[in-house]
Amino acid sequence: xxxxxxxxxxxxxxxxxxxxxxxxxxxxxxxxxxxxxxxxxxxxxxxxxxxxxxxxxxxxxxxxxxxxxxxxxxxxxxxxxxxxxxxxxxxxxxxxxxxxxxxxxxxxxxxxxxxxxxxxxxxxxxxxxxxxxxxxxxxxxxxxxxxxxxxxxxxxxxxxxxxxxxxxxxxxxxxxxxxxxxxxxxxxxxxxxxxxxxxxxxxxxxxxxxxxxxxxxxxxxxxxxxxxxxxxxxxxxxxxxxxxxxxxxxxxxxxxxxxxxxxxxxxxxxxxxxxxxxxxxxxxxxxxxxxxxxxxxxxxxxxxxxxxxxxxxxxxxxxxxxxxxxxxxxxxxxxxxxxxxxxxxxxxxxxxxxxxxxxxxxxxxxxxxxxxxxxxxxxxxxxxxxxxxxxxxxxxxxxxxxxxxxxxxxxxxxxxxxxxxxxxxxxxxxxx
Length: 432
Hints:
With 432 residues, the chain is of the alpha/beta class. It has helices at residues 5-31, 36-39, 64-69, 71-80, 93-101, 117-127, 141-149, 163-170, 173-180, 191-199, 224-234, 250-261, 279-288, 317-321, 342-346, 361-370, 379-391, 393-424; strands at 56-60, 85-90, 107-111, 131-135, 153-159, 185-188, 207-209, 239-245, 268-273, 293-295, 308-310, 326-329, 350-353, 373-375. It has 18 helices and 14 strands. The strands form two sheets. It has a seven-stranded parallel beta sheet, sandwiched between helices. Helix 16 (361-370) links the parallel strand 13 (350-353) and strand 14 (373-375). The model has no long low-confidence stretch (mean pLDDT 91).
């Protein structure tokens, strides 16, 4: 297919704007504590060598959620391809940090190069990927076309475009077709998005429904030393966790906890705000609730009689999940869209959630049908469900068995996607 005029216009714009974009991006990364060596990865200057043995599979994601969503997939593909090496690129220091903490075997991270000829030529010339997997909506025109022109097998996974993005692409059908033809396989999150890709002139025979990779995430990391200290401090007290809470939700959670203390005076709530920088505001709410508390960022552990533990740090959620078998997942009592319930069931806990879960609608629907999640709408309903899980051993065992069933099913789905990518990208017999 010939490049449409709009693509040529985009190329011309990148030539003019690349120097300014490079300066801005490097300055931004340096301001966030990234070393000069790593910041220049944005210009395609690799900070690590390419392994010379086995195929290299490049995964490109944008931010934290997209980066973490593919780590389990990389791990599974690594099991199928024991000689393969993996490269994951993303754009933010936070994504780089979290990926580094959960890096699958034989995987390296780099910051994604700018969508301009010089940075991309250096990047592709150094890494020489045998296959490239792009995640969600990462449709950078020059990156896709230059990768394709090298003969690299390419896939788009977890494909998802907002209504606004779809409308923008619909106004330029020739450009959409030119960009989407590079993919050997497009796996979407659901049937609606599969049809949207076809409507955008993606090759019909290469589009298929996959699943939401964010619902197949790798287990959250835990720290044995932290867990030992926490268990020593808790001394066997019952625990429930309210995770990834947002403004307007902590008040509801604290009201539920206060009600629960009437029948469960030894109950501990571990409260984990989505954004730790809200710690001071959440502390004020706990004080207003007249509940005693300890704060993780102050290096304190809960003492006897303290009712709330404010876990206001990053990267420790796996530790708190490991201390309970019941988790309320925030971002759901307000119209925020919810957070990943699979991380909870994978940790061996039942899920409680508000009704606003559009970001993971299919996952929540499957889990609710299986009995692994209960939907609540207010403090009273939340307190009632926690109370049931605390007192009714049969109900708790049933919920936990349902969670285990969900984990098994999702694991099988992940294996299917990994095998499909290996086959479609022709990686089975790639020589070393």
